[in-house]
Amino acid sequence: MTSEASTASVEAAARVGTAVQSVIAGKPETVRLAVTVLLAGGHLLIEDVPGVGKTMLAKSLARALGCSVRRIQFTPDLLPGDVVGVSVFNRETRDFEFKPGAVFANIVLGDEINRASPKTQSALLECMEEGQVTVDGTTYLLGRPFMVIATQNPAEMEGTYPLPEAQRDRFMARAHMGYPDRASEIAMLQAHSADEPLESVTAVTDAAEVRAMIDAVRQVYVAPAIDAYVVDLVAATRQHPLVRLGASPRAALHLLRAARASAALAGRGHVLPDDVQRLASPVLAHRLVLTTDAHLSRTTAPDIVAELVARVPLPASA
Amino acid sequence: MIARMRPAATIAAAIATMTASLSVVPLFDSGRWILPTALAIVLMAVAGAASRAVALPAPLQPVLQLLALLTLLTVMFAQPAAAWGFLPGPVALAELQDLTRIGLAEAEVALAPVPTTETLVLLSVGGIGLVALTVDTIGVTLRLPALAGIPLLLVFALPAAVVRGGVPWWLLPLAVIGWLLLLAADARDDARAWGPLLTRRPGAQAGPRAHPRMPRPRASAGAAALQVGLVAVVVALLLPTAIPGLSEPVWVSPSGDRPGIGGDGPVSVDPFASLRRDLVDNPEREVLRYRTTAPSPGYLRLVALDTFDGVTWRPSEAPIRVPVTEPLGPPDLAGVADIGESTWDVRISDLDNAQLPVPYAGSVITPAGEALDERWTWDPQARTVGGVGVSSRDAAYAVAAYDIDPTRAELRAATKRAPDSLLPYLQLPDTLSPTLATLADEVTAGAQTPYARARALVDWFTDDGGFSYSTNVVTPPGADPLESFLEERIGYCQQFAGTMALMARAVGIPSRVVVGFTGGRLTDDGEYVVQARNAHAWPELWFAGIGWVWFEPTPRIGAGVVQPDYSRDRVDSDTPEAPVPDEVPQPQAPDVAAPVAGAGPGGPPTLLIVAALAGLAVLVTLPMIIVAWRRRRRTSRTDARVRIEATWRDLGDSVTDFGWAWSRAQTPREAANSLGRQVTLGESERAAMRRLVWWIEQVRYAPPTMEFIAPSPAELRADLAVLRRAADRAAVRSRRVRARLAPASLWGGGLSESSLEGARPTAGV
Question: Given an 8 Å threshold on Cβ–Cβ distance, is A271 in contact with B697?
Fold first, then answer.
């Protein structure tokens, strides 16, 4: 990764972050995570109670990027075809014609994804992994960048189908919004009373630049010691006594990609273990399936990841 | 009444004084002072006990003891002047006073070991008697035994400060044990004040006696105190080796430069100092006149300096002394065909020195007129004349001397290596700058014989090397004078002579530096006049079969500086007639080190104690040595990446040794921040931390194609040391001690295991 590309990427990413933060006040970490996942070419799952700005985050990010945005409101009666598209018979041409679904956009906002039926959910998730849609034997490529920002209410909420672990695994990271602090909330009230703040978010970059940024991130150097560390960390989740199902190899891949993006965001050409550690909880926690003991002792997955980060030793260089 | 006498404490005080005064032993050349001094100590104890027994008021007790001491001194040293044969009357006191004054004057100029003269014994008996009096008064009468340690310490400190190389190490524990006995005896008396001792000697009666101090109810307090004290002594002896920064144990007194003490010879003034003063102060002052039958008079020698201690040249440690009235035979001159004889009539005027100027090789000295003081003696090895408490002023004498004027051919033939007895003349201090040896090798490269090497050195100093002469040379502060001289190439005779002698030793030629005078100015009536400005220093080099041969490396014209015939022109200096491969001596530095290193005082018991203590010290310091060695090894790896990684690991080890948290699960930045939170780091320490973090990140995580300027081992060590000091400074005392004596990191990666254990999941328990 050349230094010019790096500088440009850092600046563009900073602009995006600033634009989003003008709407989502007081959550710089969450915004940073969203940008990191974007640059890493991953998908983001935002999980929190209703009304804390999940959709707002996704929308403002999409607007700031200046890319095409589609929004899918997931409901129990949503069909897979609504998501990926359908082949419709055209009477004039006497042929089936493909009507693209909502996923044909750079940023796809999947609102309340866990309200949809598993069938519809899996249709979306296939697109996320493959970056393409196959309908009636024909494959349609999705645009680049392609990022799904899905929001989800916590599993306990009424009328939800919790995402199966296999599907959670496809999201690179899970973000929590959390309630804003007092000052941010007051500021939000004032901002929202005047006009719609989302209107003020303008595109600060475009799809081409985001693609360049994503390519640049791939050039970030990863030392063997970092590879080893990521593997150690992921393996440790599988051996933890309170974890029933640990993180997958895909999780390791995602963690490393996210760490690369984080390094690029910091203007570095190489990944530091600090990048890995910072992203370990967002990237790994939502994939872990905990044992009953863990639930009984109210230990959460982020607790376990934090504990592992605190004790897995960093490999020295060879 | 017995209890009032406090016999135990009295005896302990006397023993304490005796053990402390043992440190005076190295001051004298014989043990004749010991008995009278011991008598004085005993007398002080008896007088003290007696005055306590009759309940003499406390202020009067030392007065009585003083009278007893004066009586003893009178009987011993001024008996004829005593009133009624033993009482110190006014006449006797005046006599004692005179003797004391003479003794003090003697002590001022004499150097240890001093001859056991009557006056010096008087000083010893009187001085140590006074100490015994003080110790008895403070420790027993006033019951302040701890304070009694001060006069005892004074007795110990005087020889320790005066004797070159310090007093033997075992004198300190001996002196301290005496004092501990006094403390223990006092503690016993304390306990006894509460009634009969229960644990020992239950029959011993002691009247309950109120004492203002807090008494200890335990009868064994004295014994316990003694034990604690003994442990303290051992620790005090061993600990200095274990404390970083104290490279030398404290009981080893520095043998470095001591202004005013010129060494063991008769010189009471640094010969160089006086030389330089003469050169600078009053160069025209006439020092002496002489007539000689020698056709080309050489230099007049005052003193030969054969030991270089790293800073200055000194006379040898233990010169043999021969009365000046005895003639010295000719030196071993098997290799010289032409030996002449000459006589020198020397009349000294204004030279106040403890040496007599004599030519080389002087053999017989006959006084001209007034007989020479019998304290003048020959040093047969150096062939110089010196004495204790003597002055050369106005001395007049004739010297018969052998004129040794070897030819070049004879010098070239002198290729045999020096016998073992000359090894001291080849010795170089370990601290000597390596530049010197390198330079000596360069200068003498290609020279086959010792003579060729010597000539190469002389030519280099006087000609090739670009040296110039100046008496106003100031070594920059902090610089090594020798290196500075070789760098600037400007100096005066002392530096030329000293440096050439060192370089000669470096190429295997025995050498020494001689201080004296150049030949002086020849007057019309055939008399030579030597002035202060003729004061000079030059090297003498030893050649087999010829002996000591002088050379003149000082590039200076005037003031009588001449070149001996054999080094006057350089036509054939480097063309030996026939190389003698068999006997070409090798540079002898390795041979020299071995026999000298093992030399040391002490018979078998001392050796045994030393060995045992050394063993103990090694045991105590072993962990430290291992850790230090490991650190050294880690930080000096040739591969910069390995070196940095090892340094980082060592930092972690050090930090944990001092009791701070350091987890290998932490990233370098986290570790740095965490240390910063635990130990308040100063600006330079933070900078060192930042550098180490940056380096370790570069090594571990940056692309290998990325070039970075690798830090040198010294840089790494410096930063590591800075951070270690910070961790040390902030640590609690027990951890600081443990970090040195039993560092946790010594037993391997205790670090990662413990951090894993500490982080075991507690949830669900």
Answer: no
Classified as helix, coil or strand, B563 is coil
Q: Which residues on B lie below 8 Å from A225 (Cβ)?
A: 700-701
> What is the rounded CA–CA span in Å between residue A48 and residue A35?
19
Residue carrying structure tokens 């010991």: B34
| Architecture, CATH, for domain A220-318 | Orthogonal Bundle (1.10)
Instruction: Report the SS3 class of residue B376.
Output: strand
Predicted local confidence at residue B584, as pLDDT:
36
Cα end-to-end distance, chain A, whole Å: 24
Q: Which of A137, A145, A143, A110 is nearest to A125 (CA)?
A: A110
Identify the pLDDT of residue B108.
67
2.60.40.10, 3.20.20.190, 3.30.70.580, 3.10.620.30: CATH of B271-573: 3.10.620.30
Which residue from B601, B736, B737 is spatially nearest to B238, judged by alpha carbons?
Answer: B737
Rounded CA gap, A122 and A79, in Å?
Answer: 11
Residue of B656, B662, B699, B701 best to disrupt the A interface, most CBs of A under 10 A: B701
Residues of B in contact with A294 (CB under 8 A): 763-764
Mutate which: A220, A275, A317, vs B, most B CBs within 10 A: A317
Q: Quick one: closest CA in B to A275, which residue?
A: B667
Domain with CATH 3.10.620.30 in chain B: 271-573
Spatial distance between the Cα atoms of B664 and B661, rounded to a whole number of angstroms: 10
Torsion sign across C-alpha atoms B246, B250, B254, B260: positive
Alpha helix positions (H), chain A: 3-21, 28-39, 54-65, 80-84, 118-130, 165-168, 182-194, 197-200, 207-218, 224-239, 249-265, 273-284, 292-296, 301-311
Q: Which secondary-structure segment (H or E) carries B451?
A: helix B450-459
Q: What ipTM, to 2 d.p.?
A: 0.82
Domain A220-318 in the same topology as domain A1-219:
no
SS3 of B687, please?
helix
Q: What is the DSSP string of B234-278?
A: HHHHHHHHHSTT--S-TTS---S--TT---SSS-SS-HHHHHHHH
pLDDT, one tens digit per residue, over A94-116 is 888 888 888 888 888 888 888 88
Instruction: Say yes or no: A99 contacts chain B, CB-CB below 8 A.
Output: no
Q: Could you tell me the two tokens for A287? A: 């994939």
* pLDDT score of B272: 54
pLDDT digits (tens, 9 = 90+) for A8-17: 777 878 888 8
pLDDT for A227: 92
What gap in Å lies between CA B5 and CA B51, rounded to an integer? 8
What value does the mean pLDDT take over residues A38-57?
83
Q: Give residue B274's pLDDT.
A: 56
Topology, domain A1-219: Rossmann fold (3.40.50)
CB A66 within 8 A of CB A43: no
Over the range B602-613, which residues count as b (16 or more CB within 10 Å of their CB) and which as e?
eeeeeeeeeeeb
List per-block mean pLDDT (blocks of 10 residues) for chain B, which spans 765 residues. 77 89 82 89 91 82 88 86 80 86 75 76 89 88 80 79 69 81 78 55 44 45 62 69 46 37 34 56 76 80 81 70 77 72 83 80 78 77 79 82 80 79 80 80 82 84 76 65 76 80 86 84 81 81 83 71 70 41 36 34 53 73 78 78 86 86 87 87 87 88 78 85 86 79 65 36 31
Three-state secondary structure string covering B196-229? CCCCCCCCCCCCCCCCCCCCCCCCCHHHHHHHHH
Give the C-alpha separation, B220 to B243, whole Å. Answer: 33
Q: What average pLDDT is seen over chain B?
A: 74
Please answer whether residues B549 and B566 qualify as being in contact, where contact means their C-beta atoms are separated by less than 8 angstroms: yes
Query: Cα separation of A156 and B72, whole Å?
Result: 107
According to the model, what pLDDT value does residue B164 have? 59
